[in-house]
Amino acid sequence: MLDPKLTTFLTLVEEKTTVRCAEALHLSQPAVTQHIRALEAEYGVKLFAKEGRRLTLTEAGARFYRLARRLPAMEAQLRAALTEGQAAPLHFGVTRSIGEGLMPRLAPALLDALPARRLEMRLQNTRTLLEELDKGEIEFALIEGNASHRRYCCRPFYTARFSALGAAEGRWAGCRTLAALCSAPLLVRETGSGSREILESALSARGLAAEDFAACHVFESVPVLLELAAADRGVTFAYEVAAAPLLESGRLARLAEGDFSITRPFTFVTLPDSPLARQEQYLFEHIRDLCARL
């Protein structure tokens, strides 16, 4: 069980004031203060400085927080490790591009590889998945690109091609450059998604932005974006693995191939020093080997 003083510390960092921290934990304000002072005495450092009514972390407090915030997740992993082999649920998360592109082909093999586990998969954007990993709500995440190697253990398992896509016989099929595609409406994912960040970075490198397109329509669903593009309602930018059926059927085509083509790793992300390291390595190798056969 996590030390209550650490729970108070982590909550105070999030809430910024002892009043809100006390309300969140159903404690008195003096109890919150006592917990923090006890931690400071135990570790011999000042954790907070006061700025008006708000508390801010000191440099030592920030270092302490970076380590302490991992403890709830590690406790959850320890509980899972103790129940390993007892049909414990395996909670994991994937980005929408991976979930809607790779997982339909990976999921049957994962079920076969883990017959004693109950799988619980969630779809979220990259930012949310990393937050859930930090909180111990999931055991691993499959994301596009990389996360901070200082905070996470990142293992690439698949290399995916990220392309501009539109209707094969559509109005923008003849566009040869990214700038020319700006005459089309842009069909794009929400802010915080890995594919949105990749696109914005690529546009910025060419002096362009989403606002330069004829319009910008945001959908959180990859299949919806691809169907809209195939119906000639605009152009989208997506991983080809997610668009494979539409590309193979000839409804979608790559646009501006000579000017825009990016390859990015899909990454298996866990917390470092996990009690489930052996199981996580097995899962990573299994997923990597399955993807190699796609």
Account of the 3D structure:
The protein is of the alpha/beta class. The chain folds into three domains: 66 residues, Orthogonal Bundle (Arc Repressor Mutant, subunit A); 95 residues, Periplasmic binding protein-like II (D-Maltodextrin-Binding Protein, domain 2); 106 residues, Periplasmic binding protein-like II (D-Maltodextrin-Binding Protein, domain 2), CATH 3.40.190. The chain is 46% helix and 22% strand. The protein is built from 13 helices and eleven strands. The strands form two sheets. Strands 3, 4, 5, 6, 7, 8, 9, 10 and 11 form a nine-stranded mixed beta sheet that branches. Strands 1-2 form a two-stranded antiparallel ribbon. Helix 10 links the parallel strand 7 and strand 8. The protein is globular and about 70 Å long. The two termini are 43 Å apart. The model has no long low-confidence stretch (mean pLDDT 88).
The CATH homologous superfamily of the largest domain: Periplasmic binding protein-like II
Terminal CA distance reads 43 Å
Hey, roughly how much beta strand do the residues contain?
15-25%
Count up the helices.
Answer: 13
Percent range for helical residues?
40-55%
CATH topology category name of the largest domain: D-Maltodextrin-Binding Protein, domain 2
Number of domains: 3
Major sheet details: 9 strands, mixed
Work out the radius of gyration.
23 Å
Global morphology = globular
What is the level 1 CATH name of the largest domain?
A: Alpha Beta
Structural class: alpha/beta
Specify the CATH architecture of the largest domain.
3-Layer(aba) Sandwich
Count of individual beta strands: 11
> Segments where pLDDT lies below 50 for 5+ residues?
none
Order of helical and strand elements: HHHEEHHEHHEHEEHEHEHEHEEH
InterPro entries: LysR_HTH_N, LysR_subst-bd, WH-like_DNA-bd_sf, WH_DNA-bd_sf
Protein name: LysR family transcriptional regulator
Family: Belongs to the LysR transcriptional regulatory family.
GO molecular function: DNA-binding transcription factor activity; transcription cis-regulatory region binding
